[in-house]
């Protein structure tokens, strides 16, 4: 009886300028394999299914426990984390491809600068002068802290941007993840100081108005973050901010 094997069909690309192509690999099956362990096996012995020596597969990874978001790729047509994609639960042949929303650097490695630049655009951080001790910060009400914690689980994996039909090469839409981060940092007692600045950024081209409400993002998010709830809340917040801007007053 022949040994059990696992077959992979991997979309490869040698440089950002060259055309993608598919290469097939076949590995000996081991219990509890995930996609990352399979890629590591191919890297140790880069020989394709035809028995030809080839170059090792290039991909990104870091934590290997679905926290860093670096190992995002399209697995059997679905964007997800490869560290938690178990071979036993995947239909074979297992097809791996880079996320198409982002430029490909090589093979499965992508450039997620689009998402990180969007986070800079909406000031997705708490600007605090760390040159001296500010003392204890203001406390957040428990009810607000609970839903804010859910938003803080975002690991900038980019899966929601890949799943969103409005994020593509012909659109400047910043995507679901940066939108949700605006709600998170505006909820922070100190972050609220820059609330108007973040909301005004969302009212610019490529902001909130570019969302088509397909809800693919909330279905694909590996952390189950309520992205569409944040988008709905931001629609209300930006409406109030637009009135404030029109009347030139913070009392509206």
Automatic annotation (TrEMBL):
<keyword id="KW-0001">2Fe-2S</keyword>
<keyword id="KW-0479">Metal-binding</keyword>
<dbReference type="InterPro" id="IPR017900">
    <property type="entry name" value="4Fe4S_Fe_S_CS"/>
</dbReference>
<dbReference type="GO" id="GO:0009055">
    <property type="term" value="F:electron transfer activity"/>
</dbReference>
<keyword id="KW-0411">Iron-sulfur</keyword>
<dbReference type="GO" id="GO:0022904">
    <property type="term" value="P:respiratory electron transport chain"/>
</dbReference>
<keyword id="KW-0560">Oxidoreductase</keyword>
<dbReference type="GO" id="GO:0051538">
    <property type="term" value="F:3 iron, 4 sulfur cluster binding"/>
</dbReference>
<dbReference type="Pfam" id="PF13183">
    <property type="entry name" value="Fer4_8"/>
</dbReference>
<keyword id="KW-0003">3Fe-4S</keyword>
<dbReference type="InterPro" id="IPR004489">
    <property type="entry name" value="Succ_DH/fum_Rdtase_Fe-S"/>
</dbReference>
<dbReference type="InterPro" id="IPR036010">
    <property type="entry name" value="2Fe-2S_ferredoxin-like_sf"/>
</dbReference>
<keyword id="KW-0408">Iron</keyword>
<dbReference type="InterPro" id="IPR050573">
    <property type="entry name" value="SDH/FRD_Iron-Sulfur"/>
</dbReference>
<dbReference type="InterPro" id="IPR012675">
    <property type="entry name" value="Beta-grasp_dom_sf"/>
</dbReference>
<dbReference type="GO" id="GO:0051537">
    <property type="term" value="F:2 iron, 2 sulfur cluster binding"/>
</dbReference>
<dbReference type="InterPro" id="IPR017896">
    <property type="entry name" value="4Fe4S_Fe-S-bd"/>
</dbReference>
<comment type="similarity">
    <text>Belongs to the succinate dehydrogenase/fumarate reductase iron-sulfur protein family.</text>
</comment>
<dbReference type="InterPro" id="IPR009051">
    <property type="entry name" value="Helical_ferredxn"/>
</dbReference>
<dbReference type="GO" id="GO:0006099">
    <property type="term" value="P:tricarboxylic acid cycle"/>
</dbReference>
<protein>
    <recommendedName>
        <fullName>succinate dehydrogenase</fullName>
        <ecNumber>1.3.5.1</ecNumber>
    </recommendedName>
</protein>
<dbReference type="GO" id="GO:0051539">
    <property type="term" value="F:4 iron, 4 sulfur cluster binding"/>
</dbReference>
<dbReference type="GO" id="GO:0008177">
    <property type="term" value="F:succinate dehydrogenase (quinone) activity"/>
</dbReference>
<dbReference type="Pfam" id="PF13085">
    <property type="entry name" value="Fer2_3"/>
</dbReference>
<dbReference type="GO" id="GO:0046872">
    <property type="term" value="F:metal ion binding"/>
</dbReference>
<feature type="domain" description="4Fe-4S ferredoxin-type">
    <location>
        <begin position="145"/>
        <end position="173"/>
    </location>
</feature>
<keyword id="KW-0816">Tricarboxylic acid cycle</keyword>
<keyword id="KW-0004">4Fe-4S</keyword>
<dbReference type="InterPro" id="IPR025192">
    <property type="entry name" value="Succ_DH/fum_Rdtase_N"/>
</dbReference>
């Amino acid at each position: 009886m022949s040994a059990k094997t696992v077959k992979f069909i991997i979309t490869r690309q040698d440089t950002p300028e060259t055309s993608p192509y598919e290469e097939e690999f076949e590995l000996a099956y081991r219990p509890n394999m995930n996609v990352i362990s399979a890629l590591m096996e191919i890297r140790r012995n880069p020989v394709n299914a035809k028995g030809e020596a080839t170059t090792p597969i290039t991909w990104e990874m870091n934590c290997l426990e679905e926290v860093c978001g670096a190992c995002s790729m399209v697995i059997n047509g679905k964007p997800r984390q490869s560290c938690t994609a178990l071979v036993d639960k995947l239909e074979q042949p297992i097809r791996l491809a880079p996320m198409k929303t982002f430029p490909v650097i090589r093979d499965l490695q992508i450039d997620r600068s689009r998402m990180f630049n969007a986070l800079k655009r909406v000031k997705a951080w708490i600007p605090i002068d760390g040159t001296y001790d500010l003392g204890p910060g203001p406390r957040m009400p428990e009810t607000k802290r609970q839903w804010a914690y859910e938003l803080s689980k975002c690991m900038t994996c980019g899966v929601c941007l890949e799943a969103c039909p409005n994020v593509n090469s012909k659109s400047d839409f910043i995507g679901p993840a940066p939108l949700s981060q605006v709600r998170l940092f505006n909820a922070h007692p100190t972050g609220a100081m820059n609330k108007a600045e973040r909301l005004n950024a969302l009212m610019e081209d490529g902001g909130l108005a570019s969302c088509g409400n397909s809800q693919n993002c909330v279905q694909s998010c590996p952390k189950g973050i309520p992205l569409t709830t944040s988008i709905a809340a931001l629609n209300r917040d930006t409406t109030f901010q637009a009135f404030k801007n029109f009347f030139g007053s913070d009392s509206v």
